[in-house]
Give the backbone structure.
Amino acid sequence: MNAPEQPLARDTAYNFAYLDEQTKRMIRRGLLKAVAIPGYQVPFGGREMPLPYGWGTGGMQLTAAILGADDVLKVIDQGADDTTNAVSIRRFFARTAGIATTERTPDATVIQTRHRIPETPLHADQILVYQVPIPEPLRFIEPSETETRTMHALDDYGVMHVKLYEDIATFGHIATSYAYPVMVDERYVMDPSPIPKFDNPKLHMSPALMLFGAGREKRLYAVPPFTRVVSLDFEDHPFEVQRWEHCCAICGSHDSYLDELILDDLGTQRFVCSDTDYCAQRVNQQENGQ
Amino acid sequence: MISALSVNPVPDAHAQRVEPLLKVQGLTRLYGPEKGCQDVSFELYPGEVLGIVGESGSGKSTLLSLLSGRCPPDRGRIDYRGKDGEWFDLYSASEARRRTLLRTEWGFVEQNPRDGLRMGVSAGANIGERLMAQGVRNYQQLRGAALDWLSQVEIDPLRVDDLPRSFSGGMQQRLQIARNLVSGPRLVFMDEPTGGLDVSVQARLLDLLRGLVRELDLAVVIVTHDLAVARLLADRLMVMRRSHVVEAGLTDQILDDPQHPYSQLLVSSVLQP
């Protein structure tokens, strides 16, 4: 938890970071294009990875393409470092690339994530890699791929608000709570992957580079550092993030994203930070302060 | 300042009406010999209803999709006079411009309302979609427009949050009309809007359409094979057969005194109850 874990010996049966060099070059070319056009979905020749679609194959291919021998990798799943998916992916890269891994957000140079952006503010030399299930924000309203591409090309985004309208008409407020659509640099509407809308403001003017990879749909896109990212909303129903009446039961944080835990059959609940590293850091600080 | 005003007078309503809205010259699109439509020319004026009649396969629907910018013609051109008074060629304009036109100044009422509506979202969202595409970002305003238009097309405003699939066929068709008219279009294309409805519902829909067309001063191109619909709605008629326009003129003239043998056949084949 403190110093980066010592690199394991790399398994030389595999090429560095599993993918072959030509594939990594192809993905890097795609990434350059994605960074040049913020929010635009670039197709790439997705490869089979040794785990099923939906487990983060898109994010893993991007991570493999950008990893260098001296990178420090952190992998989180629902904000936690110790869930199955996170542990497996971290171990996969430790073995195939022989790189150092960490659970501490400030120490990492590459963070692969599913569902969350770390609570600890990111800094300029970090790269956040998202695993994306459905990259197309218009998919809900328009099933045709040809049509959605035309809509992106012609900046034809009226239908995006139809979904938000439906929410207000049905629930009285915008009930979309994750994968909340955003407008990137006043041009492309983008699905920020299934992060809670709580994390949407962290995308705006972030100093870190954000890369998004969808393995099944074979699309990647990016938000370069210091890019304007605005969540869509209505004038009389502005964008709002979730708030909790509780604080974290472990570290007492009032302003982090909380998970609800049900403790027994009587429905006793506790709320804890979903970002385990942030929570542990705060507990550490409190202990040192005493 | 004053002299500039007198040199460039604001075009008054009368001048707007004497100039056509749509000019069509030599429009041709053929899928095979005499399959499709060829050499169609006409002008459409503001507030005018043009009916296109003919048997199945005569090229009516092809002509309509050419006119509404959905399918490029082999030959010929379509010029449209925009709200600003500028003429432009529909198919040499950019696709972005054509799309903007289709969801602002134009409307398209499909024969089957399922093609023209978004079946997965509520009636209110269907009506509000064009406004949202035009940049209206105020929920109350969208809601108000939806309720207003539902009552204009005689649907109970209480059903604003219901899905269109829970509506009857006639209500779906009226909802589709509301969805198209909400943006205040100047030109509406209709492809057999009363097809597939039973006779009493047809009559109500026609009545409603006639009222709205007069009230909003819409120019309409309506395709139908039902001469009764044509007589009720259209000012002018074009009779099509085997991809050609065989006769064109005022509705009453064509229906009461058809000149072309095919028009005569068409008129005489209507069943008289």
Summary: The interface with chain A takes residues 95-96, 99, 103, 118, 120-122, 124-125, 128-130, 132-134, 137-140, 142-143, 160-161 of chain B (CB under 8 Å).
